[in-house]
């Protein structure tokens, strides 16, 4: 039982870390499809 | 003098206007009444829609130049979406329905005909550790993620025809949105789990002659034989490799989908979705079999992963070669044994 | 009832991008989202052709077919629209669309690509016609005011025609007859399963 509870916690934890990491890398379209000179 | 000049300018201006007005209708009359009087056909040298559609017949995209940074927009038209649409709406649903419902039917029939695989020698009361804490942790993390990934993934394909009519569009869209979040983020612990499973249990899952013999003798589920096996029998080894290979493919294709066009073009994306979907539905069907045998299909089996120990009689009946190895390592006293796999910490 | 279509007369398009600019301005389309674009085939070579492309509002739209949450709908004028409230940003409509019409505000697909945006034939969305909510999500609703899409209205050479399919096909046929050539109605075979004999 304990290993199952730990597994659920770990799953949610890894998922949350991944979510935060990916969202910090996520580029909105206006930045991705623009050159440096553009004033957004 | 000034007045004279002014009058002269006026007269000249009026004459010019009159001349223009007189000539204008003549100029109209000079318009050609035949189409294309010079005989030049600028379209002769250019690409016609039909020619380009013939190129499309080969599956190529028609690619040009655009002045905007998103280079995907330089594709004027690409046909492969049509085939992919048919695959996703028709073919995949058939494959998934047949695989999953088919497996369920097989399991129900099997249970009705063969019944539960019973422990024929009965419980001895003495237990032996089969899976340690770390192994169970990894298994349950992978398994729980698999269940949620499977359900949320099936929702993409089957949600619209099966669930949407029941709960209506706004509720379904909300559920589908959260399902997508869960699917994308739980893929990470799942992938970690599959990788750990691969490393943890590779030693015990290399096929050998004992497996051939086990399969030939029906594996204990076809008939009531008890062919010997080491820690993992041939059926379990099949599940192991399905999980490792299927899990890797599904994760790889899934990550291509999560990073669209980072690595591949649109045909690559369509291929990634196709691979992901087919492997996933077959994976779900296979895991239904695994879940069946590990829960109701076999008496005394669930404990192995549920709390880590199994009855010695169970081990002797189903994995006698493994039991021998364990006894030899620890001696007749089983209570203080070292686990075969990586230590709990 | 009218069956709305777009027709780009590729022999007239001069790549001026007035259609693109008109659309972007009228609907306040954010940077990075390209509802309409001009693609130049064989750039710089003999037979260079420019074609303006946005959503073609297909018969049997593939985007609508593959959407997992069924957020698309077709109006009585055969305009293909969608609901941003229902959209989950999965990106499948882009994989299915032969013309690359769907656009997304986010590049990565972790969780969601954001709400899909595309040409609406200047017909807005499911919100009430002409309201602020409709404008903020989908742009101006010109069709409800009895007007045709602005891209076609602003086309400097009247290359881009928008309106009832029968009428614009007729206009194009007359042009081809009068001038003696025509490279065909681009995309019509894929979008509407029909062609204009030229």
Low-confidence stretches of chain B: none
In which range does the helix fraction of chain A lie?
Answer: over 70%
Count of DSSP-assigned helices of chain B: 11
The pLDDT mean of chain B sits at 88
CATH topology of the domain at 128-336 in chain B: Fumarate Reductase Cytochrome B subunit
| Oligomerization category of the chains in this entry | heterotrimer
Shape of chain B: rod-shaped
List low-pLDDT spans of chain A: none
The number of strands of chain A is 0
Structure, described:
The complex is a heterotrimer of chains A (40), B (345) and C (198). Helix content of chain A is 70%, strand content 0%. Chain A is mostly helical. The longest helix of chain A is centred in the middle third of the chain and has 24 residues, at 2-25. The model of chain A has no long low-confidence stretch (mean pLDDT 89). With 345 residues, chain B is mainly alpha-helical. Chain B has helices spanning 2-29, 49-57, 80-114, 133-167, 169-201, 209-216, 234-258, 266-294, 302-306, 312-318, 320-330, and strands at 62-63, 75-77, 127-129, 309-311. Chain B is rod-shaped. The termini of chain B are far apart. The mean pLDDT of chain B is 88. Chain C has seven helices and six strands; from the N terminus they run βαββαββαααβαα. In chain C, strands 1-6 form a two-stranded antiparallel sheet. In chain C, strands 2-3 form a two-stranded antiparallel sheet. Chain C has a two-stranded antiparallel ribbon with strand order 4-5. In chain C, strand 4 (72-74) and strand 5 (80-82) form a beta hairpin. Helix content of chain C is 26%, strand content 13%. Chains in contact: A-B, A-C, B-C. Chains A and C meet through helix 1 and helix 2 of A and loops of C.
Summarize the structure.
The complex is a heterotrimer of chains A (40), B (345) and C (198). Chain A has 40 residues and is mainly α.
Outline the secondary-structure elements.
The complex is a heterotrimer of chains A (40), B (345) and C (198).
Chain A: H1 2-25, H2 29-32
Chain B: H1 2-29, H2 49-57, E1 62-63, E2 75-77, H3 80-114, E3 127-129, H4 133-167, H5 169-201, H6 209-216, H7 234-258, H8 266-294, H9 302-306, E4 309-311, H10 312-318, H11 320-330
Chain C: E1 4-8, H1 18-27, E2 37-41, E3 49-53, H2 62-66, E4 72-74, E5 80-82, H3 92-96, H4 132-138, H5 150-154, E6 160-164, H6 165-179, H7 188-192
């Amino acid at each position: 039982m304990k290993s199952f509870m730990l597994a659920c916690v770990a799953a949610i934890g890894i998922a949350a870390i991944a979510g935060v990491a990916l969202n910090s890398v996520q580029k909105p379209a206006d930045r991705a499809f623009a050159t440096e000179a553009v004033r957004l | 003098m000034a007045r004279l000049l002014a009058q002269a300018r006026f007269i000249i201006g009026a004459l010019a206007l009159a001349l223009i007005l007189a000539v204008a209708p003549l100029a109209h009359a000079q318009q050609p009444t035949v189409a294309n009087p010079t005989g030049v056909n600028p379209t002769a040298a250019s690409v016609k829609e039909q020619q380009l559609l013939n190129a499309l017949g080969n599956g190529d995209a028609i690619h040009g130049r655009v002045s905007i940074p998103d280079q995907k927009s330089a594709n004027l038209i690409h046909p492969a979406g049509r085939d992919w649409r048919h695959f996703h709406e028709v073919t995949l649903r058939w494959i998934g329905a047949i695989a999953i419902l088919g497996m369920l039917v097989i399991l129900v029939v099997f249970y009705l005909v063969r019944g539960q695989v019973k422990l024929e020698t009965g419980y001895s009361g003495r237990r032996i550790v089969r899976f340690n804490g770390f192994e169970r942790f990894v298994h349950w993390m992978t398994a729980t993620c698999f269940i949620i990934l499977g359900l949320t993934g099936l929702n993409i394909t089957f949600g619209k025809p099966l669930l949407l009519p029941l709960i209506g569009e706004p509720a379904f869209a909300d559920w589908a949105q959260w399902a997508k979040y869960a699917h994308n983020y739980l893929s990470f612990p799942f992938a970690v789990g599959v990788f750990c499973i691969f490393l943890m249990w590779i030693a015990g899952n290399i096929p050998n002659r004992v497996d051939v013999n086990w399969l030939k003798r029906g594996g204990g589920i076809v008939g009531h034989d008890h062919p010997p096996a080491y820690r993992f029998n041939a059926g379990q080894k099949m599940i192991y490799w399905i999980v490792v290979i299927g899990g890797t493919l599904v994760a790889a294709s899934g990550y291509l989908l999560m990073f669209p066009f980072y690595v591949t073009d649109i045909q690559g994306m369509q291929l990634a979705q196709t691979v992901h979907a087919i492997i996933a539905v077959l994976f779900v069907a296979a895991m239904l079999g695994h879940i069946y045998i590990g829960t109701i299909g076999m008496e005394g089996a669930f404990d192995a992963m549920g709390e880590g120990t199994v009855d010695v009689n169970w081990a002797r009946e189903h994995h006698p070669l493994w039991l021998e190895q364990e006894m030899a390592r620890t001696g007749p006293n089983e209570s203080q044994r070292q686990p075969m796999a990586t230590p709990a910490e | 009832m009218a069956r709305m279509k777009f027709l780009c007369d590729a022999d007239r398009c001069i790549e001026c991008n007035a259609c693109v600019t008109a659309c972007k301005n009228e609907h306040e389309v954010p940077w990075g989202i390209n509802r309409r674009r001009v693609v130049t085939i064989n750039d710089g070579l003999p037979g260079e052709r420019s074609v303006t492309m946005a959503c073609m509002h297909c018969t049997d739209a593939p985007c609508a077919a593959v959407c997992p949450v069924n957020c698309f709908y077709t109006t009585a004028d055969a305009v293909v629209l969608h609901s941003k409230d229902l959209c989950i940003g999965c990106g499948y409509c882009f994989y299915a669309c032969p013309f690359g019409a769907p656009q997304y505000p986010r590049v990565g697909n972790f969780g969601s690509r954001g709400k899909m945006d595309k040409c609406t034939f200047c017909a807005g969305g499911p919100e009430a016609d002409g309201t602020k909510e409709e404008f903020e999500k989908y742009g101006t609703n010109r069709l409800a005011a009895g007007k045709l899409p602005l891209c076609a209205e602003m086309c400097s050479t009247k290359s881009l025609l928008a309106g009832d399919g029968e009428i614009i096909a007729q206009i194009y046929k007359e042009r081809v007859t009068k001038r003696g050539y025509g490279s065909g109605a681009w995309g019509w075979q894929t979008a509407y399963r029909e062609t204009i004999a030229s």
